[in-house]
Amino acid sequence: MMQKKILVADDEKDIVELIAYNLEQEGFAVCKAFDGRKAWEMVNADKPDFVILDLMMPAMPGMEVCRMIRRQAETAAIPIIMLTAKSDPVDKILGLEIGADDYITKPFHVRELIARIRAVLRRTERRPDDDLPESFDFRGLHVDFNSYRVTVDGQPVELSSREFKLLQFFIGHPGRVYSREQLLDRVWGDEAFVEPRTVDVHISRLRGVIEPDKETPRYILTVRGIGYKFADISA
Question: Nearest 5°: phi and psi at 230?
Fold first, then answer.
């Protein structure tokens, strides 16, 4: 298996070196950045398989780097974990909403970070929906599964890799209802640190991007007391 390359971006050099050392001991290749602008340059130059971003960095904050990664087609699918010194749930939810796949609050245990990285990598390497067509069209929603491009009524929209996987899963199982726990199992896989509320956060974000009217969704529907489903495309 080809060695995975991970970009670690944080203005605290001690943290970068600690993470880098442990990742290298686990067999990963590591590149380092100490400010947001350099991180963005390295994402484009090195095309890492994974990015660890500090929330607050000089030159460009991690939030903005995350947004830019998601806006660019060739980098949009790169998994991202945000590092934050803030414990406010609002900051964590914001990180997920702008496209991060996960977040971890400082101070943290390096072993937990590595476990989360491996869990995300297992999910991205897993292809449960290989039988999906190359593209999908339904009520103005167009999804190109090869280029990760999504448009709604002809307008391009930006999804994080997790949101895209969630949408992909729903499209592969239209009309079928899934509970939060089932979605965690199918989309998040064997990650041990994700709570059911995370599903609600990602679905809310996904609806906010693809639904013309978030309050009256046409694609991802709520089944009260049970969970969520994609609209029945045969109806």
Answer: -85, 145
